[in-house]
């Protein structure tokens, strides 16, 4: 049996292509430098208008061809990109956060490949990282958990049965849920099969935007708190003991811990 190795090469910089770029969580100052430069040089920009803050590309050239993909279906937005690349333009496709997480880029890439259009992907700061920063917490807290599970409740996009929230909750790791705020009661119900009711829980709404908001509670109280706040989308749910901030010290900086840059001592 032989094995093959497949690699994806980045097109030459002067070759028209589609660049999928993470536009960060919303704060223009959390935009990657590379993406900031590409916006300043952009010939065409297609952005997810329902999620990407327009402030992140306010510095794009006035001559840039800019369109909002919010009202487009998959075939329309892919045709928009393909048409412009074949006309000699590089298209900057701006996704919220990091495009590798719930970015729906795989289906776009498949169509670009079928059309013979080159592409590349530039990472961005995910909203779950911006949310953790806003909460002022370490998600991998020594003494509590060294695992973070990123997931979502099943909706229009189904979740495989092996990844049902009750099964993931059984690990008692830090949980971060995308695209699930409108089902926060079901989230709590599923997690209460494994976590105690007093487990710290929080919701972060639009981290990085001017109207960002944090709701802190417990697994038992969060659904009612979110309902009272009137939030049903564009938010992340955090569940886990890491949110209480108490735990053991990491061994990394322990005086007795030796590594390549420091000799430990008792």
From TrEMBL:
It comes from the Bacteria. InterPro entries: 4pyrrol_Mease (IPR000878), 4pyrrol_Methylase_sf (IPR035996), 4pyrrole_Mease_sub1 (IPR014777), 4pyrrole_Mease_sub2 (IPR014776), Cbl_synth_CobM/CibF (IPR006362), Siro_Cobalamin_biosynth (IPR050161), Uropor_MeTrfase_CS (IPR003043). Pfam families: TP_methylase. One of its GO terms (molecular function) is precorrin-4 C11-methyltransferase activity. Keywords: Cobalamin biosynthesis, Methyltransferase, S-adenosyl-L-methionine, Transferase. The keyword Disulfide bond does not apply. Residues 17-222 form the Tetrapyrrole methylase domain. GO terms for biological process: methylation. This is Precorrin-4 C(11)-methyltransferase. The lineage of its organism: Bacteria, Bacillati, Bacillota, Clostridia, Eubacteriales. The gene is cobM.
């Amino acid at each position: 049996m032989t094995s093959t190795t497949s690699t994806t090469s980045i097109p030459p910089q002067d070759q028209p292509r589609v660049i999928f770029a993470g536009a960060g969580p919303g704060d223009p100052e959390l935009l990657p430098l590379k993406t900031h430069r590409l916006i300043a040089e952009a010939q065409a920009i297609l952005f997810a208008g329902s999620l990407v803050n327009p402030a992140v590309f306010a510095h794009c050239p006035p001559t840039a061809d800019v369109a909002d993909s919010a009202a487009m279906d998959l075939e329309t937005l892919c045709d928009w990109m393909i048409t412009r690349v074949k006309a000699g333009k590089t298209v900057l496709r701006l996704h919220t956060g990091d495009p590798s997480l719930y970015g729906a880029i795989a289906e776009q890439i498949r169509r670009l490949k079928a059309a013979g259009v080159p592409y590349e992907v530039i990472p961005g700061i995910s909203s779950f990282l911006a949310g953790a920063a806003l909460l002022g917490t370490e998600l991998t807290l020594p003494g509590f958990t060294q695992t973070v599970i990123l997931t979502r409740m099943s909706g229009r996009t189904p979740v495989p049965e092996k990844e049902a929230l009750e099964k993931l909750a059984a690990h008692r790791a830090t949980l971060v849920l995308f695209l699930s705020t409108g089902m926060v009661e079901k989230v709590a119900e599923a997690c209460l099969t494994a976590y105690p009711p007093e487990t710290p829980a929080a919701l972060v709404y639009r981290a990085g935007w001017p109207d960002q908001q944090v709701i802190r509670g417990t697994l038992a109280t969060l659904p009612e708190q979110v309902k009272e706040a009137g939030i049903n989308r564009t938010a992340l749910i955090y569940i886990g003991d890491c949110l209480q901030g108490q735990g053991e010290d990491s061994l990394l900086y322990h005086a007795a811990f030796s590594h390549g840059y420091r000799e430990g001592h008792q």
